[in-house]
Amino acid sequence: MNLALFAPLGLMIGSFLNVVAYRLPRGESLVKPGSHCTTCGTDVKPWDNIPVLSWLILRGRCRGCDERIAGSYPLVELVTGVVFAAIAAVGGLDLDLVYELPFAAMMITVARIDLEHRIIPNKILLPLGVFGIAAIAAVNTDFLPEALISGAAAFTFLFLIALIHPKGMGMGDVKLAAVMGVFLGASVAPALLIGFLTGSIVGVAVMAKHGAAGRKRGVPFAPFLALGGLAGLLAGPELIDLYVSNFL
Questions:
Q1: Contact 181/155 with Cβ under 8 angstroms?
Q2: Which pLDDT score, from 0 to 100, does residue 211 have?
Q3: CA angle 198-225-95, nearest 5°?
Q4: pLDDT digit string, tens, across residues 79-103
Q5: Which long-range CB contacts under 8 A does 170-176 form with residues at least 24 apart?
Q6: How far is it, in rounded angstroms, from Cα 77 to Cα 72?
Q7: Model confidence band, residue 24 (pLDDT cutoffs 50, 70, 90)
Q8: How far apart are the C-alpha atoms of 176 and 158, rounded to whole Å?
Q9: What is the pLDDT of residues 193-205, one digit of tens each?
């Protein structure tokens, strides 16, 4: 039942996240105009705007001008659908979904924006951070102290890293970590660990492929934080227990 309900919801939300990821960094309205081809300006008809399916039917091309539509669009929709279904399947139907689903949507959005533009917009982080605190206070009050402490701790940890190694860590990453701490609580610890591990692996691979020039290639960190954030959301307590039982 959870899969049947939340997977389609995630697909639809993923379609909107594509709009946010494209328009917000460009300073465009998220409401007007409606969905349209960014090349020829043709309005996208409702039957051509079905998440994932329309892209497949159109073979990744605009119906009006035959311009290629990037595969990142259906990918974001599909990932959001899978993640929403996984969250509901793991946690069940409870009030925590009020802030867990928006958090997942935020992580997917900032990952895509950072990949394309190398920025993490404050226009996403600040509203979601405020929303997270308010939502947690409303539906999971006992969790609020942990959320606030974890947010402050995550911010401080990455801020110190940014001071020591400013070329490798931007303030957008620092602020994103703080928001992650608010939503995840103590689970932000394994989330950050996963982010650093996967980011390091990719960074080493880039340097191995491009040699000395690879050091100058900036690798956006938000996608790795997003991966860690989603892992922390789905299995954070279990990851903490696994670490404690094996290393402490």
A1: yes
A2: 63
A3: 130
A4: 999 999 999 999 888 899 999 999 9
A5: 170/120, 170/221, 172/114, 172/119, 172/120, 172/125, 172/222, 173/120, 173/221, 173/222, 173/225, 175/120, 175/122, 175/125, 176/110, 176/120, 176/125, 176/222, 176/225
A6: 9
A7: very high
A8: 10
A9: 999 999 989 988 8
